[in-house]
Amino acid sequence: MKIDSDDVADLAAGATLLGSGGGGDTATVALMLQHTLTRLGPVHLIEAMELFPRAMVAPIAATGSITLLSERLPAGHEFQHAVTTLGQTLGTPVSALMGFEVGGANALFAVAAAAWTGLPLIDADGMGRAFPRIDQVTFNAAGLSATPAVLADPLGNHMVIAQSRDNGDAERMLRAAMPSLGGWAATAIYPMQAAQAARHAITGSIRGALALGRLLRAAQRHRSERAAMQAEFDAELLFSGGILQVLRHARPRTGGTVTIEHRRDSRRTLRVEVGEEYRLAIDDGRVVAAVPDIICVLDALTWQPISAEHIAPGREVDVLKLPAPVHWTLPQARDLVSPPAFGLTLLDEDLGGPIAWLR
């Protein structure tokens, strides 16, 4: 399969929904990707199993501030340098790229990086959605190391994190480096062999985002198509109503809370806990969705996804839940992305009723 400029709108739409309110704005990055594919031609999408089992694969992402990145778009050499330097550090060239995060702007950057480097792109990623930290990937759950990791900025600076005690430390070092790199960097991280990619990545995620985006765009044009999209992706309509209040917490990393009044029953409210993404939905005291579920808030009229950053009172919305990627339901992975991993502490699992989380 090839991804060309005609696929960009669908990929952007699907990636935005899989961002669960986070992952960065895809609009500007989509324009950049469309221009790149028009100029350089389509990207080849392959399966990891098509490669020699020991071929080197590099997950690729833009890390740091997507807002700053949108104001200072990459020229392409940043990702080329990151991939080349990683190969030099490992002593073996990179044979293929792989998505790091299919939710949000990084789905588009993975395709653009493949175009810039001329390498094939494996149809897989490490999240199946968007998460804020580099240790919240299936590769970490499988015991793979994030290092060596290479960060490249637009000025030609390359930084190699040669080794870290664990992937949590790699996350901290990477974030600490961002200010000196101008706020964002092209990042090649979690290098692995093709056989490991086939075993531990979430396969089919790029095709899935394309298909989801295609159906979402049809649902935006024709209201009658909404049910088809929900059925195809097992999406559940959790709530419909108007946003009463958006409370931002003083500590930015803990996010905030959105309160939504039901459209037909004013006595019923939905509370959505927000961080970089939507993390928890509580319908009158009953938990109806929690990370790693993909919680999506859409404008009720247009069905355009609303980001956690821009959600505001007064809007009429529909709240959807897409099922969590199956990798995140496994015991060895669940703790990385469950509510306590985001500061939402589980009070009691033996209540015999709803499970409640509080900070």
Automatic annotation (TrEMBL):
Domain S-Me-THD N-terminal: 6-162
Transmembrane segments: none
Domain S-Me-THD-like C-terminal: 166-345
Organism domain of life: Bacteria
Protein name per its UniProtKB record: DUF917 domain-containing protein
